[in-house]
């Protein structure tokens, strides 16, 4: 057995309000959503925001209080956007990639902002998050709309993390923010307990069966 320890720089450390597993949402998922929207979204009152993978660990933070949900297994996102938002959406918080990325870009408004925080659909493929099947190259889609496609990588904003964890912790403590964890209790192999089930938990996530942050309880 191998043991490992690491010293955390106090400049990026932040206190948490409770030992409830729900706070596992904050260090990466919560801060990614919070900082990305603040730094990259430039949100204005009255704008429309599209969140992909809204049931995921990060998307749940951005989609709280949404006006319209789309189950891609039952509806075509492209058809919904074209019909209900003919002028496009102002901000897209995108974490799926491939065809979803193209759909979002096609339905972006003039001067819209597309924040790319991941590409989960391509993580297991050899092609990665490369978009395919478009009649118009992606750069030209953005050019015709004078739109920005904005990347966000949390490590570039490490100094912002403590303040955002403090703010998110306060929102959770006061009940203004609800975060969800999924221990795989409803899966065939769940609930996930022990380090040997980490692989099963990852497969569970890739199968798109989770709601919120997937949690493995290592020991009691």
UniProtKB/TrEMBL annotation:
GO CC terms: mitochondrion
InterPro entries reported for this sequence: ADH-like_C (IPR013149), NAD(P)-bd_dom_sf (IPR036291), Zn-ADH-like_protein (IPR051397)
Transmembrane portions of the chain: none
Domain of life: Eukaryota
Alcohol dehydrogenase-like C-terminal domain: residues covered: 63-168
Listed Pfam families: ADH_zinc_N
GO molecular function, one term: oxidoreductase activity
PANTHER family: PROSTAGLANDIN REDUCTASE 3, SHORT-CHAIN DEHYDROGENASE/REDUCTASE
Protein name, per record: Zinc-binding alcohol dehydrogenase domain-containing protein 2-like
């Amino acid at each position: 057995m191998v043991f490992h320890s690491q010293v955390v720089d106090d400049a990026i450390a932040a206190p948490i309000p409770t030992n409830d597993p729900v706070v596992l949402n904050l260090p990466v998922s919560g801060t990614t959503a919070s900082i990305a929207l603040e730094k990259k979204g430039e949100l204005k009152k009255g704008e429309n925001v599209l969140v992909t993978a809204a049931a995921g660990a990060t998307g749940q933070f951005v989609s709280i209080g949404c006006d319209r949900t789309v189950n891609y297994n039952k509806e075509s996102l492209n058809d919904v956007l074209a019909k209900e938002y003919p002028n496009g959406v102002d901000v897209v918080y995108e974490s799926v990639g491939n065809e979803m990325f193209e759909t979002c870009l096609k339905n972006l408004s003039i001067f819209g902002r597309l924040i790319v925080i991941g590409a989960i659909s391509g993580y297991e493929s050899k092609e990665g998050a490369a978009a395919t099947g478009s009649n118009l190259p992606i750069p030209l889609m953005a050019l015709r709309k004078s739109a920005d496609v904005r990347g966000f990588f949390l490590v570039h904003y490490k100094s912002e993390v403590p303040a955002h964890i403090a703010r998110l912790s306060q929102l959770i403590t006061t009940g203004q923010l609800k975060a969800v964890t999924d221990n795989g209790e409803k899966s065939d192999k769940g609930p996930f307990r022990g380090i040997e089930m980490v692989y099963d938990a990852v497969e569970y996530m890739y199968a798109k069966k989770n709601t919120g942050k997937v949690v493995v309880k290592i020991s009691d």
